[in-house]
Amino acid sequence: METILQAARYWCKVTLLDCYVDNTVLVTPAIHSKLNVSQAQSDFTNVMDFMNQAGVPIHEILTPSTGMKLLGWIFNTETMQISCPPERLKWIDDSITAAGKECNLKTLQSAAGVLEFLAQALPFLRAPLGWLHRMAARYDSIRRLMK
Questions:
Q1: Phi, psi at 41, each rounded to 5°
Q2: Are residues 61 and 110 in the same domain?
């Protein structure tokens, strides 16, 4: 795949073309701080034409986009924002309300899971995530000692 992509980068004049296992990712840089969707569409068309001529098997095509929904969170790459849909926000509020003032291992692990996911897109969350993992480990150790 890397050999094919190297050729595609050269012939399509697209530098930000990468792969993860067998998934190809095309990134079109923003021009003048605004997302250039027409340039992305042009780059995408050129890369698809190249892949077809090269005989690369394609099982799914996702066209250029400025947004996506992943695990209930909405990512907007045009405004560089991650938002939480109302139903997900209600679930979070209900979970916090139901938990009350007590914290248990399940709550800590759930919070760590949400941070783990968000830290993939927001690297500054890795520090609190590490702290939360340490708290969960301590909680579990203390609970075992209390038995």
A1: -65, -40
A2: no
Instruction: Give the model's confidence band at 74: pLDDT under 50 very low, under 70 low, under 90 confident, else very high.
Output: confident
11 with 58, same domain? yes
Judge whether 124 lies within some domain.
yes
Most confident among 40-44, 81-85, 98-102 (mean pLDDT) = 40-44
- Which pLDDT score is estimated for 21? 64
Range of the domain at 30: 2-65
- Reported as a pLDDT band with limits 50, 70 and 90, residue 67 is confident
Question: Quick check: is 95 in a domain?
Answer: no
